[in-house]
Amino acid sequence: MSVPADAADGSNSSGRALAEAAAASAWIDDTERRSNLTRSQYLIWSAQQLDSASPLYNMAFAFRIEGPLDAARFEAAWRSVAASTDSVRTVIRETDGVPRQLLLDEAPELLVVDFSDDADPAAAGAAWIDTRRSRLFATDRCLTDAALLRVGRSLWIWYLNQHHVVTDAASVALLFDAVQNAYGSGSAPDDGGGRFLAYVEREREARGSDRHARLRGHWADEADIPLHAIAPYGRAAKGRGGRTRRVRKRLSREQTDGLARLSDSPAFRGISKQLGLANVLYTLVAAFIARTASAGPFAIGMPIHHRGRRLDRRTPGLFMEVLPLRLEPDTAGSVADLGEQVRAATMRVLGQAAPGVSTPGLNRRYQVLLNVLPMQMGNFAGLPTRCDWIHSGAGDGAHRLRIQAHDFDGAGRLTLDFDFDEQVFPADYRELAARQFLNLVDAAIESPGRPLDRLDLRTEAERDAQEYSFNATDAAVPGYSVVQGIHEQARRAPDAVAVACGSRTLSYGNLLARSGELARRLIDSGIGPGDFVPIDMSRDIDAVVALLAVLETGAAYVPLDPAHPHARRGRILSDLAASASGCRIVVTDRNLDLAGDWQSLDVAGIGRADPPADVVPEPDEGARGNRGRGKTPAPDDLAYVIYTSGSTGQPKGTLISHRALANYVHWAGQHYGAGPGISFALHSSLAVDLTVTSIFVPLVFGGCIVAYPDRGENDVPVVRAYAEDAVDVLKLTPAHLALIGELEGRSRRIGTLILGGEDLKTELVTATQSRFRKGCRVFNEYGPTEATVGCMIHEFTAKDLGLVSVPIGTPVWNTRILLRDAAGRPVPTGVTGEISIAGAGLACGYLGRPELTAERFVDGPGPGQGRRYRTGDRGRWTPDGRLEFLGRADDQIKIRGTRIEAGEVEAALLEHPRVRDVRIAPVSGSRDGPVRYCARCGIESSYPDIDFDDRDVCTMCVAFDVFEDNARRYFRTMPDFEAVTRRMRDARHPRYDCIALASGGKDSSYMLHELVGRGLRVLALTLDNGYLSDEALANVDRVCTALGVDSEVLTTPHMKEIFADSLRRHSNVCHGCFKTIYTLSMQRAREEGIGFIVTGLSRGQIFETRLHDLFALRIFDPVEIEQRILAARKVYHRVDDAVRELLDTRLFSDESVFTDIEFVDFYRYCDVDLDEIYHTLQDRLPWIRPGDTGRSTNCRINDVGIYVHQRERGFHNYSLPYSWDVRIGHKRRDAAMAELDDDLDRERIRTILSEIGYPEPRFDARGDSLAAWYSADGEIGGEELRRHLAERLPAEMVPSHLIAVDHLPLTPAGKVDMAALPDWRGAQAAGQAVEPPVGDLERQLAAIWEDLLGVSDPGRNQSFFDLGGASLAAIQLGARIRTLFEIEVPLESLFSAPTIADLAVIVEDLVLADIDRLTEGEAEDLARDLG
Amino acid sequence: MQMLENLIITYINTALLEPEDAGAVNADTELLLEGFVDSISVVHLVNFVAQELGYEVPPEDVTIENFGTARLLSAYLAERGVQAPAGAPAA
What we know:
The complex is a heterodimer of chains A (1427) and B (91). Chain A is built from 47 helices and 44 strands. Chain A has 1427 residues and is of the alpha/beta class. A six-stranded mixed sheet of chain A has the order 7-13-12-10-8-9, with helices on one face. In chain A, α10 (273-292) packs across α13. Chain A is globular and about 110 Å long. The termini of chain A are close together. Chain B has one domain: ACP-like (Non-ribosomal Peptide Synthetase Peptidyl Carrier Protein, Chain A). Chain B is globular, with a radius of gyration of 12 Å. The chains are: A alpha/beta (1427), B mainly alpha (91). At the A-B interface, α11 of A face α2 of B.
């Protein structure tokens, strides 16, 4: 925001206000202004407050001195230096939360410890240091810790630790020298150094200068430039880290010299050698980030030493300040090119640097920091000395990686200390990262002109392993044709059962007899090699006959799914017709209505009579000249064509040859142990290549197929296959396995499970283990249709338990798996690339699609690199040599194992005459696959926006570790409650001291007991919401009678509507209920003149409802929290919802009601656990746990809320408060998780839902589903649209969520802006059109809304509260408007005008009113600023 | 070139040095080696040259050869046709 020029006469009220604002921005906040710290100190101080239990700012050094050191002399030297150095005697004391540094008279003593008598003095010394370095400073007493350790007769360690707030690396070097000089000269150091506190004053005064204001303005603009966050190896840890581990690498002399040469070269040279080296190192760090972590612009933290004045160069203390160095590497350029960019960037930063310009906002712009430290400590008083900078084990949680480069001992070898955030870099990635960085160093020294993306960061061992060893899969395939294989089995054992279905069986002999006859019929009709024969049959014995028959004619079969809609079959047939001129016959088992010149051939009745057993017919070789080659096709003859979803709406056919099919089948049979007597289940769609395994593998190896045809719409064949337990091998998708997991019993026969189709989660395997017999082997088979069924294999073992997904393993026979970047080059280990497949299993291409085929089936870069198929799947090599699957990179979606091209679904929607534009995307209400649980608090992984670290601890627990001390300040103790009790009594109410909200549940009953125990006169209020358990009401009655407490039951006839509204807005019932009871009880309180309402909210609920958001904003001050809660309460009661509409809420229009009546959360003061509550209730009160309420202890509608929330939002609405209960120690994790494991009575829930008039949620948000955003001419009914889609798409492809929008937002590049689409959860019904904001002002407001609500593209007529805005967000809205437009919008207005359109009118009015008071020139400026 | 040199020396003496060092710099003073000027103040000098003398020194020319002394700097600039603006103070 620019500052308008002063008006000529200098009298300029708004100008002055703005100038004051600019001057005010010299300080981050009032606290800084009132303190006497520099900016750098203040930022460190504040960060330390947030992580008060962390030693992250301990700067500890150990100087190892060899030789005859005079300890007494050393002590004297230390004392004299300490006495004359400000920074050593500085401490920081806080008054009213304002930190001020002051100089103590006494200097910190030097601790002298003698370990030389120890058994192992060196170890003892090391252990002492190891403990001491993490010791927290008592910052009000001492910020310097110095010790002299004797660890040998002539071996000493000088340990020096100072809090970073008073030191930096240069300061340490100065102290080292000062003590050395004092030791050597025997006298106090001369006062050539400056006083640190004098510098501090200078730094603060300089903020008032114009120049400083100008620089701040520059950095404010810089802070607006968007950057990408750095995600090393694709990991983006959520939440703050803080635990760091150091990996130290020492460069060789050659490497160090190489870097020195580089820093002198034209691309890197700076004004000094130091700057040149810094440029080189920044370049290397930037190159490293570009190759492993980030695309797009990012910033690296660049420390500025600020010791410009010669005096400052001699002054110990904290001068250093970090500013962001913004870079945008081009990986097509070379190291030298990047170097020039870096040099220009460092010069820019230096040109704008001045002490005091760094801010928290600037600090947030970088996650990687590089510290180049040129100082050398040298020998102490001529004695050989080694200097070690000791890592505190902790770091700034926002930094993923800090690199320090130094050579303190002047050895001519640069040391690189990599400090990794543990959460972001697991152990093996730390070593990997350091190693790759060194590879980069070598590559840069050797060829600085080579493009960055051509530098191979792998070691030779890695290259060998990834390209060669992994792919050494050559194997001889016996025979090229499955037909040949099947004939051989028939010859060997013609009576063995080949296919069974129910009680019917078909022997090998009869199978061939029938297929032979069908083949002859087909050949007679003109079918032969080069033809395609669609098969549209039920999954029964005859289908197998048909497949084999087609193969025997030499043609390729094309399996269709009878369950798919008519239109889809039509598309496939026309695709075939367009590409192949042969005959048009569809083999089927029923009456098919075919268009075009397709004819159906019904197999019913063909060859049903069993031929004599000793006749095994050969296919008639001579029947049509060289046709009928079926038994010995050429390897490149096609075996089948399987159609998969096409991105343009037209499904595409993948052509698989006999060679490819034989390669897979023979490999699979060997690998899975197929053979005579081994049965495979055929239970899923023939149109998907999953079934190829279960058809050809048993037949080629002499086993048996057991077929499970579909029995109707709700039939799930895999369940039958499992239950009948008549097979040995079951091939299925993870979704199928999950279904089996829901069943009872245990299979005794199934010995092999083959999982394929989508990512297999480890937890699913372990969860379903008990459904199968011991020793049942589980395989994960990865492979796209384009690589013939499966191309990689992994057998699940106990070693996989630590992983989230079961690995995809290693390639099958004659197959090579390659990981490549977009340009076809190998990627560094740990970095994501695209999985490509080469080898015998590759499809020939797509039928009739030469461009698509050329796009996906490419030749490797470079000649002779072979043909490979680009899967579009992302993967990466882990440091321990495993290829990890990471999911899709593009529009292809997998929903429950079904491969879906978004384009096909979009095309189907666009066929509707009124649909204009559409975009499809998969959505998950929660994580896909089975849910994991936090190891500490038990919260489920499906809870939004949380992540788990390597130890399976959730981000909330990790964050809580950090701010726990602060958080607990809000909570009080019972003695504090005494003060509240006193205030209640002092009100001297004639009848009651307070109202207590009694629900009949355990928490409020216990509370009543305690209140009465303190002698309070209580009026107990209970809300009968219509679903209160009778037993709960009885409890209230009994407990109140027993305690002698008056009790009233409040009701309202509007409860059902309030519940329905609460479900609509929040997917829960508690919100409506709580609000009602707050409203009604405040009315009672007002009526009776009672000033206190005591609630029984548990601590977990207090955390959830009141504190969670505030802690996320780092607000811990109890006073501020109370103020914000009060403000939020006012907003809460003014939201325009059903409660406000239906109940009498007039009393809230007078704000004094909020201060007259105080809400007291009893459990804020009382810290008692679940067991204690239950004991008291059992022993002291006639309280009986209601049996009619499900999980709640008082309410029957609670379960309804849980059910709806689960289905609509994908997670349990009690997850958050229960996790808090565990975190604060009120519940044990297993108890909390058990409580969340609900047994919901769906019938009862459905009944209640229809009573209150809320529709049962249609889809379960826990699974993956498909959402479609579309724009249309006019409204289209949801049912109509669904019907339209069902006619065109298989059921699994129809989107679950249809969201109508006015238009699809586009990015500047012309693609649909996915981030700008409205939340699929917001608009449930189709046909809800959203009107976009109009004009600059509305758009600015909309931007704030998007930010606060996390909702994209809010409509100008949508209510802030309807879109999820809650009380706290409303307050923030007011604050943002205040900052942006400098006007105060009263809270009242936010409620009467909660839409963007209305709010814009109010803002404009206020601004215009302001302008009326300005002069003309100022008005112009202001108008221009507002746009 | 003399005027150019004087201009540079004056700027350094008045704008870049600490109060206690003001006036200590002449044409041949080793600015960097003697610590009168560091990497940050060099950038200010570059900005000064850009603003007052209208010449943008490319980053690769910001080296000790060109910026080591006031004399070296004015030689560098003169080679590139930079002149002191009219009205600049004489020696």
